[in-house]
Amino acid sequence: MLEIKNLTKIYKGGRTAVDNLSLTVRAGDIYGFIGHNGAGKTTTIKAVVGIHEFDKGEILVDGKDVRARSLDCKRVTAYIPDNPDIYEYLTGIQYLNFIADIYQVPGAVRQERIRREAEEFGIYSVLGDLVSTYSHGMRQKLVLIGALLHEPKLLVLDEPFVGLDPEASLILKKKMHALCEKGSAIFFSTHVLEVAEKLCNRIAVISGGKLVAEGETKALTGDKSLEDVFMEVIHHDEAN
Amino acid sequence: MMRQIRLLTKISLYGMFGLNELRFTRDTRKKVKACLLGLLWAMVIVMLAGYVGLASFGLTAMGMGRYVPGVLGMAVSLLVFFFTIFKAGPVLFDRKAYEKQIALPVTVRAVIVSRFLSMYITDMLLGFLVMLPGMAVYGVMEGPGVSFWITGILAGIFLPLLPMTAASVLGALIAGIASRWRRKNLVSILLTLVFITVIMVGSLSMGGMEESELNAMVAQLGAALEGQIRSLYPPAMWVCDAMVSGEMGKLLLFVGVSLGSFVVFLEILQRFYVNICGLLSAREARGNYRMKSLQEKSLLGTMVERELRHYFSSTVYVTNTLAGELLMVILAAAVLFVDSQTIEQAIGIPGAAERALPVLLGCLPMMMPMTACSLSLEGKQWWMLQTLPVTRRDIIRSKMAANLLVALPFYLISEVLVLLALRPGWADALCLLAVPAVYIVFGARVGLAVNERLPLMEWESEVRVVKQSASSMVSMLVVMAAGIVPMVVLVAMPGVSGYIVYGVLVALMAGFLGCCHVLDRRAS
């Protein structure tokens, strides 16, 4: 579903944020992307969803090149950023309706999905209020609902559990599993290693823009915790 | 207290014009763009200095040199008043910045003074840009003593205080009234627009009065001018008397009134400031949503709707961009109710209303097109349009359509008024209808083209985007040039047929729009 081949991104000023990174996320995968602050996780994610241009390499979503066929790729993708900066001048329902219009979700379908998801996340009653009145967590839930509206084939999330209450985190994890069971793929970055270990079937570790470890979660950790493995590979990479 | 004010003002000035970002950025393109913008500013300053210098030269040559400081003082005060009125409310009562600052160990008084000071410093620089060339011309021609320069500099420092206080009082009143309504933004927009309209209509009628009085009293031009300044803005005459006649008492009176009014304003405002900020930041959350049938809209329809909701949610965006449309309607109403000579006297361009009315009507609404900052105003939410399945062409079309929809009612009202007033033949009617229409579409596309090349996505306050960004300034210069060139041809060359000028103008602008259309299609 998502193929990143030899991705290199150099920022203006010459800093290499991502260096020759390759990874593959298959349909049904919940793929965790972990690394230090500034390791290149968000840069990689932003290149996948079309926010950042990149210097070298290739990114394929559902077999299509994100540069040559960006619209086709975006139609099957949903992205949730680390900071839910969304249109504050819209009400919650106006925001969701806007997203549904953009993805051309039929009226009856969007109505049913919005009701169901909003009730589940506990923000149904405030959908008529302006987004500017929402707390950080409520905004995040709204973005999540918007992202699930068109049942994306690829869901890309940047630090999705930051700011969510425990109940919403649990709901999100269930949603992620449900989506993968339907054949979608999930690619997300996180600092919470316990979550990654329990939730993901595959994990990649990035350090200094380079992929330093990648594979099946169980094969990667063996009898150690992901935390130990992470510290090992990071320190090994830094020592080199 | 002084330390708090100094630090808060410093932080505020760091953000202004993006100077701090420019200082530390490693992006060479950003630096080059900033240099080009600096050059543009320098050009505008030279033009302004030239204009002020020539006007001062004219007055001095006519033997009315002693009134030059008074005229300069009045011009600076009016300029500062208009600059401040559009931003006083949003800057003084910026709730997000207030929430960040008040969590620090600073007083409300320090917050208000620092915000006022950050506006004051830029306005003072603007004031000196107007004052100095005029003073230099007067200094060379009349050779006044050292006291002229000392009082001039002192007056220049204090000149912005009074008009800024007046504009801030008005901004505070508007914010105070708007804060009591549920739709605060809309009330604030309406009140500001009503006020701007009143000022515009008032200044237009004053302009006519001044000219007619001057004509009637050719022998007593000086006295008439003095009377005008004294009746319109007495403090300007105090400055004039202090600079020319060395009346230090008048200077003290001027400084005292300026400082006194500011202190009184500060004392009153700090009592209500927290309340007003609280009321403005309070958002009504009902929490009683019941789902009704959700309507499907087309891609363009939903994007235009979002653009319009965004536009009308921002007071500073609407008031700054809609002033041109208001002027268009005022001009059209003036054509219906006042004779063309009075209009020409008021706008200061002889022959403009008779010969170039379609150009005048078209220029006004695009003075500051709303598209000139619509991309930049996406700000932190720009990621949404980048990641949603919409093309660049969809974005351009939605922003253009929103601009045209906003301008449409003003265009229609103006056209009806003008056609009723002039009852023209078919050819003139066609010019009156087509030229402003093409100008409006052209202005909207130019604004967008400039904003695409000069975007400003990282900002804290909308004032920075709408009033201080490179895109707004360059768009304004481009559309000004598109208006001034045909106007000069029409007014200065009476032999050239208006139809030919209009034909060429429409063809050129339509050509530009056609090129943009083709390029947009290709890019998609």
List its salient traits.
heterodimer; A: 240 residues; alpha/beta; four-stranded antiparallel beta sheet; 9 helices; B: 524 residues; mainly alpha
Task: Give an account of the 3D structure.
Chain A is of the alpha/beta class and 240 residues long. In chain A, 40% of the residues lie in helices and 25% in strands. Chain A has helices at residues 41-49, 70-75, 92-102, 107-121, 136-148, 166-181, 193-199, 217-221, 226-239, and strands spanning 2-10, 16-25, 30-35, 56-61, 64-65, 77-80, 154-158, 185-190, 202-207, 210-216. In chain A, strand 7, helix 6 and strand 8 (185-190) form a beta-alpha-beta unit. Chain A is globular. Chain A starts with a strand and ends with a helix. The relative contact order of chain A is 0.18. Residues 208-219 of chain B have low confidence and may be disordered. Helix content of chain B is 80%, strand content 0%. In chain B, helix 20 runs antiparallel to helix 21 (426-453). Chain B is mainly alpha-helical.
Q: Fraction of residues of chain B in helices? A: over 70%
Determine the fraction of residues in helical runs of chain A and give it as a percent range: 40-55%
- Shape descriptor of chain A reads globular
Characterize the quaternary organization of these chains: heterodimer
**Strand proportion of chain A:** 25-35%
Round the Cα radius of gyration of chain B to an integer and report it: 24 Å
Please give the largest β-sheet of chain B. Answer: none
For the secondary structure, the number of strands of chain B is: 0
What's the helix-strand series of chain A?
EEEHEEHEHHHEHEHEEHH
User: What sequence of helices (H) and strands (E) makes up the elements of chain B?
Assistant: HHHHHHHHHHHHHHHHHHHHHHHH
Figure out the total of helices of chain A: 9
Helical/strand content category of chain B: mainly alpha
Determine the structural class of chain A based on helices, strands and strand pairing: alpha/beta
Q: List low-pLDDT spans of chain B.
A: 208-219
Q: Strand order within the widest sheet of chain A?
A: 6-7-8-3-9-10
* Overall spatial form of chain B: globular
Summarize model confidence as the mean pLDDT of chain A: 90
Q: Based on DSSP secondary structure assignment, what is the total number of beta strands of chain A?
A: 10
